[in-house]
Amino acid sequence: MSEALASGGAARWLVLGAGGHARSLLDVIERRGDTVVGVCGEARGPAWSVPVLGSDAELAETAVRTGSLVALGIGDNTRRLELLRWAESAGLRVPALVARTATVASTASLGPGVVVLEHAHVGPYATLGRAVVVNTMAVVEHDAVVGDGSHVGPGATILGAARVGPGTLIGAGVRLLPGVRVGAGAVAGTGAVVTADVADGGTVTGMPARPLEASR
C-alpha cells in the first residue's frame, strides 16, 4: 500500500504529463503547500507556470537530483499505468497524492500513483488499486474496490462494497449501487445509474444503465 501524504508537507513533486489532467494535479499540489519542480510531456494550452521537461530521462534525472516525488498527470488509463511501471522501474517514488480538501478514511488502502482530487471522499476499508484517479467531488464508499488504472469521474459515486475492475472508466455523475460489479475495461457513461453487474469491456448508459447496444 502506498502511504497517502498529508497536506502541508512542503514536498517537491514532478508531474508526468502536460495536459489538462496534469494542470489539475499542479493545482492540487500547490494547494497542499507543496512545490511542483516541473512537468514532463507535450505542453498544451496556456503557458505553464513551472518548467516543462523535454523527456522521461530528463524527468528521472531531475527527480533524483531534487529528491522529488512523481505524480501521474495522465488521463488515459492504459498510459497512466504504463508510466507508473516505468517510474517504478527507474527507482522513482510515486506515492498516492491526496488533495487538501479530500477525505480518506484511515482504514482505506491506496495504491501507488493514486490521485484523490478536491472534495473527493474515500470511505472506510475502501481499496484503490495502482494509478487510480478519484476525480473532483467523487465518492468511493466503504468496502468498495477500484481496480488498477481505473478512473472515477467528477461527481461519481461508488456505493458500499461495489467492485470496479481494472482499466475501467466511471464517467462523471455515475452512480454504482451497493455490491454492483463493473468488469475490467468497462465504461459507465456520464450520469448512468448502474443497478446490475457490467461485463468486462462493456459500455452502459442511462437510468437505469443498459448496455449501449440495447439503449439505441
From TrEMBL:
Keywords: Acyltransferase, Repeat, Transferase. Gene3D superfamilies: 3.40.50.20, Hexapeptide repeat proteins. It comes from the Bacteria. CDD domains: LbH_AT_putative. Acetyl-CoA binds at residue 151. Its EC number is 2.3.1.-. The record marks 143 as: Increases basicity of active site His. Signal peptide: none annotated. Substrate binds at residue 75. The active site is at 142 (proton acceptor). GO terms for molecular function: acyltransferase activity. Residues 14-85 form the PglD N-terminal domain. InterPro entries: AcTrfase_PglD-like, Hexapep_transf_CS, PglD_N, Trans_hexapeptide_repeat, Trimer_LpxA-like_sf. This is Putative acetyltransferase epsM. It comes from Nostocoides japonicum T1-X7. The lineage of its organism: Bacteria, Bacillati, Actinomycetota, Actinomycetes, Micrococcales.
